[in-house]
Amino acid sequence: MMFETSIPIRVRYAETDQMNVVYHANYATYFEVARTESIRQLGFTYREMEDMGIEMPVVEINMRYLRSARYDDLITVRTQLKELPKQHTITFHQDIFNEAGKLITTGFVTLFFLDRTTKRRSSMPDILRDKLLPYFGGSEPALPAV
Questions:
Q1: Model pTM score
Q2: How would you classify residue 50: left for phi > 0, otherwise alpha for psi between -120 and 50, otherwise beta?
Q3: Looking at the domain assignment, is residue 64 inside a domain?
Q4: Is the pLDDT score of 141 beyond 50?
Q5: How far apart are CA 146 and CA 141, in angstroms?
Q6: Is 116 a domain residue?
Q7: What is the pLDDT of residues 69-94, one digit of tens each?
Q8: Does residue 46 come out as left (phi exceeding 0), alpha (psi in the -120 to 50 range) or beta?
Q9: What average pLDDT does the segment 36-58 reach?
Q10: 88: domain range?
Q11: Which CATH number covers residue 35?
Q12: Can you name the residues that pair with 21 across neighbouring β-strands?
C-alpha cells in the first residue's frame, strides 16, 4: 500500500532556457509544488506543520532526466510515499509525465523532520501520521468536518 497523488502543472515561459526546454533546476521546483499539494490533499499543509514548530528541509534529491518538457506543455507530477515514515525522514518518490503520458523525469526527495526552535531532529507530527495511516493499512481516515 502507498499514498499517491498526481498534480498537473503548465510549463511557463520563464521556466525554459534558450533551447525552449525546461531548465533542469526547475524540475526540483515541480517536485516541491507536487509534494506541497500532495500534503494539502491529505487535509494538512506545510504551513500548519511549521506552525506546530516542525520544519522539513531537503536532505537528499535525486533526479534522472529522460525527455524534455517545453513551454506551455501540461505536465503531471506523480508523488508517492511508498512507506510510512518510521523515523525522522520522509522520502517522496516522484515522476513527471508529459501530455502523452511518457515519463520525462524521475527521482526522489528525502526530507528531515526538524524542530524549528532547537534545530534538532524530530518525528513526524501525529496529525500527519494519522492522515497517512489509512494508506498503509491503518485505521480509516476521519471524515473532514463540514
A1: 0.90
A2: alpha
A3: yes
A4: no
A5: 15
A6: yes
A7: 999 999 999 999 999 998 899 999 99
A8: alpha
A9: 95
A10: 3-136
A11: 3.10.129.10
A12: 70
Taking the C-alpha atoms of residue 144 and residue 43, their distance in angstroms, rounded to an integer, is: 8
Catalytic residue at 17? yes
Counted domains in the chain:
1
Active-site hit among 17, 73, 95, 130: 17
Q: Is position 114 within any domain?
A: yes
Residue 142 domain-assigned (yes or no): no
Q: What Å distances lie between residue 14 and 30, 83, 88, 130, CA to CA?
A: 14, 35, 36, 39
The closest alpha carbon to 2, from 95, 85, 123, belongs to 85
Distance separating alpha carbons of residues 95 and 107, to the nearest angstrom: 6
Residue 4 backbone dihedrals phi, psi, to 5 degrees = -145, 140
